[in-house]
Specification:
The protein is an alpha+beta fold. The chain is built from 1 helix and 5 strands, in the order ββββαβ. It has a 5-stranded antiparallel β-sheet with strand order 4-3-2-1-5.
């Protein structure tokens, strides 16, 4: 899925968590997977995170969430 960007803040325009902000962190050095962080605001002062084990799982997570994301950078 080519629209997944790492270490970039995005706004969720459609799908689960619509209106929240998202950032995907490569955690392969520590856990081998990816952290998916969502927050009410773009500064990520508070929020929620989830973890997936590999890139295929990350793509599946995006697909299941039905996300359309506008990446901000």
């Amino acid at each position: 899925m080519s629209n997944i960007r790492l270490d970039t803040i995005g706004e969720i325009l459609e799908g689960d968590d619509k209106g929240k902000f998202i950032k995907i962190l490569d955690d392969s050095q520590s856990t081998g997977g990816y952290l998916i962080v969502t927050s009410q605001g773009p500064k990520f002062e508070t929020g929620y995170d989830d973890w997936v084990e590999d890139w295929d799982s990350l793509e599946g997570y995006f697909q299941e969430s039905n996300w359309i994301i506008r990446w901000l950078a």
